[in-house]
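B., you asked whether I could sanity-check this one before it goes into the benchmark set. Here's the sequence:
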Amino acid sequence: MKTYIFSGVFLLLCLSGAAQPGGCPLPVISYTADCGADSTQLMASPGFDSYTWFPAAGLSDSTVQNPMALLNIGATYNLITTTLGPELVFNGDFALGNTGFISGQIYSSWYSPCNYYVAPTFFTTAYSLTDHTPTADNFFMSVDGCGPATILWEQTISTIDPFEIYDFSFWGTKVDYNQPIYEMHLIGNVTGDVVVATQTGVVYTGIWDWDEYGFSSWNSGANTSVTIRIVNLETNGFGNDFALDDFSFRKICVDTTSVTLSEGVLTADFDFTPGCPGTESSFTDLTPGTPDSWSWNFGDGATSTDQNPQHVFSNSGTYPVTLFATTLSGCQDSVTLSVLVPELPVADFGFVNDCYYNVAAFTDLSTVSSGSINQWEWNFGDGSTSLLQNSTHLYSGSGTFNVQLVVTSDANCKDSVTQVINRFEAPVANFSSITEACEQACIPFTDLSTFVDIPIASWQWDFGNGQTFGTPDPVPCFTNLSAVVSSFDVTLTVVNDSGCQHTFSVADYLQIFPKPVASFTYSPNDPDVTHSTVQFNNTSQFADSYAWNFGDSDGSSNETDPSHVYENSPGSYLVTLIVSSFNGSCADTAQVMITILEDPVFYVPNCFTPDGDAFNQVFLPIFTESFDPYAFHLTIFNRWGEIVFESYNAAIGWDGTYENKGLVQDGVYVWRISLKESASEMPAEYTGHVTILK
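And here's what the prediction gave me:
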């Protein structure tokens, strides 16, 4: 028997039948056993070169064809076999004569140098040679190599499988006293490329006896053909006589198969996955071997004959589940296991109905009598979900929502509960009024708030000035006594019967303008009939339009600072200025009485020089019109308001002295003249300044 030594990685196929691809035979394993026996003989089909069983534990011998094995039901024994596949060399024993190969020598039917021939025997006076095989078919003989590197014998095999291990061998002997020298090639394809190492320098010892040579582990790699070649190495051209026979090239078949013991001592066993009450519990038969029938008793009155049944327990608790397993030979065993069906949790949660804009809080109130709850699944009824135990959610609008909570216990049991939550609507606050007013105004506001189903129960107004109202349509009053526009924020909060509210606020909603202040001056201060054009100087505040009435028959103007000519006789005229702002909504009036005097009746010098010369020694008014001399009164004041000179006679003036103290100091003095005009009989008073220069 050959011993095969392999290196590398091999694909071992577990097949059934008599042969596998490439003509390799497959082993067949069987065994016999009685119910209750403790051992059996494993039997493999004959014809293989080697047998290797594993695992070796429990076997009498792991390297024999038919070992004894412990009979453990469910135990699996694997067998690796090796053998040679069918012969792939055509006419390798030369039984068909000179055919199926090529040679670099010339064929001859008898001994001839530099030739070869195929014959069953060779005979000389010195020695004889017969075929290697007992049938004495033929052998190949080379006579004198006739030069180096001569191909003596060659054959191409085109039916090999890639990535397989092959065995190559042949038999050879010398036929004279010289030592033949040649080498053999194993070439991967017909192009002649050498894909494996060659064996060179084969020197045959012994005389006329056949010896076997070759390779026992050639890996075909990716090749699908191979060329076998014998090449001459003799360089002398003679004395290289030898014979070859029985070329062989066969696949080394390696196969693995197995057998699982299904008879003998039976040990029933099973596993289970308990479900929750009302759901399926799963049972899996684990009995070794191949029982033929099964009988289950679930401990609640239910049974089954399935190998791997499902069963629904109605209530939680512990149930004794029994399995009876029976083989074809009648071997039976039973096992009882306690199956715990866990408690169902009870889902529950609390919540508060509230306004939709408030965050809804959900409190888990779920319970379980044993174990714990470890998973929560919320569905808030609007497409939103959560996995928190106690969750919150903000709804985008009002309405009723079906909120579901699914709880799962640590035993993977579930329960669910659905409750309806109300998210109340809120009213929508709104209002209207005028947005501009003048100084002091009480302005009506109109509530424009709306609701859908729940009526508004209360209103709260804030006008930014300390005033608040709780009625729908208030009339707040505003005051602006400043010099600038005052702005007021207006806020309305409405609350419905469910307590839901909405606030509408507008910054700087109301503008209160300051009231204009009318005033003016005019010049000259004492207009008369000869100087009757009066210029008015408008000193009003906060106004943007003006209306003047000058008190005579045709006097009016809209200018800011108009002038007016009084063309009538002397007299008094009431001048009226009406100023307004905010498109006339805010207004004020100022009135001044203006007197138009007659022509002046005297001339008053503004300087005199009491220095003792002959000129300008006395301050004295010069009258150009008649007046009542008995109503004349001249008074001179110094800068401290003291009277330094008085005269009731229009012919007596001031000489610049003060009582008996002599001349006063140089400077400016104030004079006042009171008199009565003779034409109008109107009293008149005039003032002015006079300067003394000495």
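One thing to flag: Confidence is low (pLDDT under 50) at residues 1-18, 191-207. Otherwise nothing jumped out at me.
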